[in-house]
Structures are given as structure tokens and as C-alpha cells.
């Protein structure tokens, strides 16, 4: 198996604690919740950062976990993970140019594996509709305890909803006080329409005063301040 060394910068304490709460909530979703979709209603809500750090925390907690990047239009993983040297990725697998063993990479994160994108595409919809994607996700769910899927936003393309239909549950990332309420409701409806259970909502860029949670800004500026995690019993968006 190929191996990549990834560099993931530490997050501020409060942000990491918020994501640890997310990790614990994921753990209590049950043994049949393996393929977990991380998505958002519109771009720049922080879903890729949430995906990467949730994957890292699950792996470090001892759960064999694989991160699958399917945001073929605008992946942020190369920037977040500061890696180079990916020759074959999920785009090669979906087009039949590579096999399973070619695109699943071992990383320097214990228990953490990764399926990257080698090249961004302008119109990947045809590839994402190929049966090989569902076959890949199902095989990964057999080999790993958790499959974290970083998907495109749900705004005006069908890619995210299509991948949600192949997943065991979804986490929606919402940017506090920025994402319009109608976009949030629309995203929840899309997830529900394809039969994917909503596991919860990550409220990103939230200001929580007092206690351990203060204003924290990560290296991604205004898009990486984390607030709190709302679990399955708090789905209602007011």
C-alpha cells in the first residue's frame, strides 16, 4: 500500500474540544453507521476542515478510519493537508484507470487512511454516477470502522445529494449567522429526500461567550472558527 506523510496543523483548544464532542456523538450513532457524509449547503462553510479533523480524531482514538475526498470540482485537501506526490486518486478509480489498492493510501496518522483526488474536474457528475463509486464506498466500509466522505456542497449541483444516497448518515456544516435559513432548510430537505439520516449539524464560526469557548480563529481565517455541535435530537432549525 502506498504511503503519504500529511501535515495537519493543530487547532485551537476550544475548536478541538468541539470536534471531540462531534467524534463522541458519531461514536454513539451505532455500529451500522459507518459511511458518514460531511457536507454543507454552500461553499466556504468549513466542511473540508471538519472532515479532515474528524477523520484524524477518530483514527487517533483507535478506530480504523478512511477519509474519502469526492469534492472533484473544488477539493481543499491539498491545501489543508499540505501533501504532494499523489499520482492516482479516486478520479482514476472511477474512470477505470486504477484499482482499489492503487487509490487507498496509508498515512502517518495511526489508523488513518485516505482516498485522495489526483486531479480536479470541471464536470465530474458522470464519474460520480458510475456504479464504481458505490462499490468503492461499500468495500471501504468493510475494511474500516468509519468512512468519512467529504462531498461537494448541496447548493445547485446534484453531486452531494447523490453521494448522500450511498451514505449511512450525514453531518451538515452551517456557518453561523451567515448561511441563509432557507439554504439550511433546503439542504436538510435534500438529505432527507434521498433517505440519508441526519446525524447532526456542526455550527461553524459561532461565538460562544464564557467558559472555555471564546473567539478562536484558525489558520483559515473567518471560515474556521468552531462553535458547537448539535446532535440528532436537536435537528430543528429555528
Commentary on this structure:
This protein is α/β, with parallel strands linked by helices and 238 residues long. It has nine helices and nine strands. The N and C termini lie far apart (47 Å). The chain has one domain: P-loop containing nucleotide triphosphate hydrolases (Rossmann fold, 3-Layer(aba) Sandwich), CATH 3.40.50.300. The protein is globular. The model is unreliable at 210-238 (pLDDT under 50). The chain has helices at 13-27, 47-60, 77-81, 90-94, 100-103, 125-128, 131-143, 159-164, 181-193, and strands spanning 3-4, 35-40, 65-69, 105-107, 112-115, 146-150, 169-175, 198-204, 226-230. The longest helix has 15 residues, at 13-27. It is 33% helix and 18% strand. A nine-stranded mixed sheet has the order 1-4-5-3-6-2-7-8-9, with helices on both faces. Helix 1 (13-27) crosses helix 2.
The name of the CATH topology is: Rossmann fold
CATH superfamily: P-loop containing nucleotide triphosphate hydrolases
CATH top level class name = Alpha Beta
Q: How many separate domains? A: 1
Give the C-alpha Rg: 17 Å
Q: What's the end-to-end separation, in Å? A: 47 Å
Strand arrangement across the biggest beta sheet: 1-4-5-3-6-2-7-8-9
CATH architecture descriptor = 3-Layer(aba) Sandwich
**What about the largest sheet?**
9 strands, mixed
Helix content: 25-40%
Q: Structural class, from helix and strand content? A: alpha/beta
Global mean pLDDT: 84
GO molecular function, one term: ATP binding
Protein name: non-specific protein-tyrosine kinase
EC number: 2.7.10.2
Domain AAA: 46-194
Amino acid at each position: 500500500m502506498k504511503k503519504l506523510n500529511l501535515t495537519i496543523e493543530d487547532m485551537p483548544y476550544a475548536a478541538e474540544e468541539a470536534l471531540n464532542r462531534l467524534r463522541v456523538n458519531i461514536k454513539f450513532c451505532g455500529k451500522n453507521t459507518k459511511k458518514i457524509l460531511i457536507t454543507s449547503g454552500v461553499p466556504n462553510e468549513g466542511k473540508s476542515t471538519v472532515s479532515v479533523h474528524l477523520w484524524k480524531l477518530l483514527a487517533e482514538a483507535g478506530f480504523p478510519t478512511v477519509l474519502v475526498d469526492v469534492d472533484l470540482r473544488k477539493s481543499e485537501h491539498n491545501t489543508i493537508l499540505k501533501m504532494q506526490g499523489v499520482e492516482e486518486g479516486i478520479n482514476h478509480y472511477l474512470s477505470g484507470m486504477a484499482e482499489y489498492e492503487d487509490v487507498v493510501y496509508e498515512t502517518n496518522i495511526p489508523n488513518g487512511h485516505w482516498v485522495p483526488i489526483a486531479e480536479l474536474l470541471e464536470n465530474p457528475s458522470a464519474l460520480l454516477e458510475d456504479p464504481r463509486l458505490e462499490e468503492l464506498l461499500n468495500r471501504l466500509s468493510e475494511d474500516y470502522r468509519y468512512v468519512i466522505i467529504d462531498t461537494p456542497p448541496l447548493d445547485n449541483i446534484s453531486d452531494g445529494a447523490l453521494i448522500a444516497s450511498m451514505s449511512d448518515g450525514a453531518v451538515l456544516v452551517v456557518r453561523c449567522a451567515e448561511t441563509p435559513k432557507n439554504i439550511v432548510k433546503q439542504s436538510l430537505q435534500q438529505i432527507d429526500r434521498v433517505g440519508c439520516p441526519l446525524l447532526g449539524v456542526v455550527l461553524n464560526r459561532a461565538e460562544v461567550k464564557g467558559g472555555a469557548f471564546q473567539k478562536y480563529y484558525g489558520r483559515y481565517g473567518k471560515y474556521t472558527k468552531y462553535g458547537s455541535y448539535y446532535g440528532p435530537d436537536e435537528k430543528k432549525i429555528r
